[in-house]
């Protein structure tokens, strides 16, 4: 097939590792892929505020409360950076919000699990933010300029998220037997869903080939998952916690761990809407959106009124 | 349900230190300029990233188009005499 000149320019830019910018020509499928991926990422940040927000009032000390509040606020900020990047591709904020609320757009299925104990807040910061960081560090070099720049900003903010979570786990693991058991229970429940955050295996990942070809992603799901396991297992050992995987074993020849297979059936089931909290999460977002409607209307009325006065 | 409005889109420019130029960092939604400034502060300067913020409605930004990169910037291409290296100076001349 004969490629158009525009297409050749686009390919050449990718080849030179130059970023694609909002007004540059890009293939329709590249645009669609990015809108899907960036909006999904944005929605994940926003919905991700819910399981942790749930513990702000119950944090065990003022210090923990302050930290968690700042962390959840950062996630809201991340959502906004990403919505703003998605909008440069020609979709409006209103459409983005409505896609989330109608269930047309997805968000990371990890946030459909409940936060049952305080240790879950530790496990989320350490494991869930840890897995997200692994992905986001790679995305700092993604080919679409506004997405890459949003990622640089996000990565700077993320490292405290992971540390505060790990610190919670460390303190619990050093505490009473009950506290240690609570920490172990949290890692038991969050470990596998965290591994699933990288997405299906490479053979089963329908969008991966394009994402790699277009340099949206630079590492595959399985590569990132392996890196995450390699880096996280020793962190668990240092604080005396165990990763709940009986197949986990160090493989000297690949200088990495061999590990078990996540329950992919559960993964697809949660994506399909049948996780423990899917309904709660969407209901909470829908409620917040509806309850904010009068504020948006009032703000618009106020702005219109002032505009009139200015003209006079 | 009435049509939802998230307000106008505003581009945000932040000066990181006194004396530095303002740099584009993203956008926010807001219904008026005060709200745009406050939202920009909350979204983009949670860690003292700025000493000053500009916000401007996105629709007022005028941009050259990437397709015209060649012809648009062409007038600057052949004027190498605008650069100091174009001129020869005798050996031993300093401070120039
Ligand atoms: Fe985040
Ligand atoms: Fe985070």
Overview of this structure, please?
The complex is a heterodimer of chains A (312) and B (96). By secondary structure, chain A is mostly helical. Chain A is built from twelve helices and two strands. Chain A has a two-stranded antiparallel ribbon. Chain A is globular, with a radius of gyration of 21 Å. The model of chain A has no long low-confidence stretch (mean pLDDT 95). Chain B is of the alpha+beta class. Chain B has one domain: Ubiquitin-like (UB roll) (Roll), CATH 3.10.20.520. Chain B contains two helices and three strands; from the N terminus they run E-E-H-E-H. A three-stranded antiparallel sheet of chain B has the order 2-1-3, with helices on one face. In chain B, a hairpin with a 6-residue loop joins strand 1 (8-15) and strand 2 (22-30). Chain B is elongated, with a radius of gyration of 22 Å. The N and C termini of chain B lie far apart (70 Å). In chain B, 19% of the residues are buried. The model of chain B has no long low-confidence stretch (mean pLDDT 90). The interface between A and B is medium-sized, with 32 and 24 residues. The complex binds fe (ii) ion (2 copies). The site of one fe (ii) ion has 5 residues of chain A, from helix 4 and helix 7. One fe (ii) ion binds next to helix 4 and helix 7 of chain A.
């Amino acid at each position: 097939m004969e490629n158009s000149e525009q297409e050749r320019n686009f390919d050449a830019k990718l080849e030179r590792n130059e970023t694609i910018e909002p007004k540059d020509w890009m293939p329709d499928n590249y645009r669609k892929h990015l809108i899907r991926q960036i909006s999904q990422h944005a929605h994940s940040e926003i919905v991700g505020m819910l399981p942790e927000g749930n513990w702000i009032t119950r944090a065990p000390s003022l210090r923990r409360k302050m930290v968690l509040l700042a962390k959840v606020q950062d996630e809201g900020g991340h959502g906004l950076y990403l919505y703003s990047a998605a909008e440069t591709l020609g979709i409006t904020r209103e459409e983005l919000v409505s896609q989330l609320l109608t269930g047309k757009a997805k968000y990371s299925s990890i946030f459909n699990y409940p936060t049952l104990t305080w240790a879950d807040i530790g496990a989320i910061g350490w494991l869930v933010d840890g897995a997200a960081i692994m992905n986001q560090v790679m995305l700092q070099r993604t080919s679409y300029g506004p997405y890459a720049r949003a990622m640089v900003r996000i990565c700077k903010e993320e490292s405290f998220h992971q540390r505060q979570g790990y610190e919670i786990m460390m303190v619990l693991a050093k505490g009473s037997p009950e506290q240690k058991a609570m920490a172990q229970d949290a890692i038991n429940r969050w470990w596998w869903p965290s591994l699933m955050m990288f997405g299906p295996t490479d053979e089963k990942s329908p969008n991966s080939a394009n994402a790699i070809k277009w340099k949206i992603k630079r590492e595959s799901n399985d590569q990132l998952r392996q890196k995450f396991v390699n880096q996280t297992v020793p962190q668990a050992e240092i604080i005396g916690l165990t990763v709940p995987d009986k197949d986990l074993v160090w493989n000297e020849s690949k200088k990495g761990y061999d590990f078990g297979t996540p329950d992919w059936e559960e993964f697809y089931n949660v994506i399909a809407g049948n996780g423990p909290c899917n309904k709660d999460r969407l209901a909470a977002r829908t409620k917040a959106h509806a309850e904010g409607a009068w504020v948006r209307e009032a703000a618009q009325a106020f702005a219109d009124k002032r505009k009139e006065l200015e003209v006079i | 349900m009435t049509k939802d409005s998230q307000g106008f889109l505003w581009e945000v420019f932040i000066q990181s230190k006194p004396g530095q130029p303002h740099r584009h960092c993203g956008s926010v939604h807001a219904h008026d300029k005060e709200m745009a400034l406050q939202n920009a502060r909350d979204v983009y300067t949670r860690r003292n990233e700025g000493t000053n913020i500009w916000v401007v409605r996105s629709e007022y930004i005028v941009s050259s188009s990437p397709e015209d990169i060649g012809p648009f910037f062409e007038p600057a291409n052949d004027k190498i005499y605008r650069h100091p290296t174009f001129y020869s100076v005798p050996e031993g001349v300093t401070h120039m």
